[in-house]
C-alpha cells in the first residue's frame, strides 16, 4: 500500500516551478494570465500549493519579474561574458535578442502592463542594465562616452521596435544576419 502511494504521489512543486509556469503564462496571455487558479490547473496542483510558496498573487508577480530579469538579462550577460571580446559579444547579443524577439512575448506582455509599479520598476532596471552592458562593450571597442551610451540606447530601442514588428508585420523584417550586420555597422562606425 505504501508503494502505491509513492507511485501515485506527484512531485512537490517549488516556488520556482510556479514562477516558471507564471512566466510562460505571462508570455501567452499577459499579466492577467498570471492568476492562481489557472496556474494551479496548469501545474496539476491545488491553490494550497501556491499559498505554501507565496503570500499572494503580488508575491508571485514579483517572482515572475525576478525570473524574467534574471533569465532575460543577467543570464544572457553571463553567457556573453564567456566570449573573448566585445565585438563577439555584441554580435552574439544581437543575434540572440533578434531571435528572441521573433518568438519571445514576455517583454511585450510586460510593456502592456507598464502602469503597474512593480512592472515599471523591473522594466526600468532591465533597460538600464541592457543599455549599460552594450555601452560598456562599445567603450571597449573605442567608442567614447557619451556616444557609447547614446548608441547603446538606440540599440535597445531597435530591439523593442523589432519585438513589436515581429508581432505586427513579421514579413517586413529583414533576415536576422542582415539586421545584425546593419545594427553593428551603425553602432561601431567611427564618431564624426
Automatic annotation (TrEMBL):
DNA-binding region range list: 35-54
GO function terms (MF aspect): DNA binding
Keyword terms of this UniProt record: DNA-binding, Transcription, Transcription regulation
PROSITE patterns reported in the protein's UniProt record: HTH_TETR_2 (PS50977)
InterPro entries: Homeodomain-like_sf, HTH_TetR
Residue stretches making up the HTH tetR-type domain: 12-72
Name of the protein in its database record: TetR family transcriptional regulator
Lineage of the organism: Bacteria, Bacillati, Actinomycetota, Actinomycetes, Mycobacteriales
Amino acid at each position: 500500500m505504501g508503494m502505491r502511494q509513492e507511485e501515485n504521489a506527484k512531485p512537490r512543486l517549488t516556488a520556482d516551478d510556479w514562477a516558471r509556469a507564471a512566466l510562460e503564462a505571462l508570455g501567452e496571455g499577459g499579466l492577467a494570465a498570471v492568476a492562481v487558479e489557472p496556474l494551479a490547473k496548469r501545474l496539476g496542483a491545488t491553490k494550497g500549493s501556491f499559498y505554501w510558496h507565496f503570500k499572494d498573487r503580488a508575491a508571485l508577480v514579483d517572482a515572475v519579474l525576478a525570473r524574467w530579469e534574471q533569465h532575460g538579462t543577467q543570464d544572457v550577460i553571463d553567457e556573453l561574458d564567456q566570449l573573448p571580446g566585445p565585438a563577439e559579444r555584441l554580435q552574439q547579443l544581437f543575434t540572440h535578442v533578434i531571435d528572441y524577439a521573433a518568438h519571445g512575448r514576455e517583454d511585450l506582455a510586460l510593456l502592456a502592463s507598464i502602469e503597474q509599479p512593480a512592472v515599471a520598476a523591473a522594466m526600468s532596471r532591465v533597460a538600464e542594465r541592457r543599455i549599460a552592458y552594450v555601452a560598456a562593450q562599445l567603450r571597449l571597442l573605442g567608442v567614447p562616452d557619451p556616444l557609447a551610451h547614446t548608441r547603446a540606447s538606440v540599440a535597445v530601442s531597435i530591439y523593442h521596435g523589432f519585438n513589436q514588428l515581429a508581432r505586427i508585420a513579421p514579413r517586413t523584417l529583414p533576415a536576422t544576419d542582415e539586421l545584425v550586420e546593419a545594427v553593428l555597422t551603425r553602432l561601431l562606425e567611427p564618431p564624426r
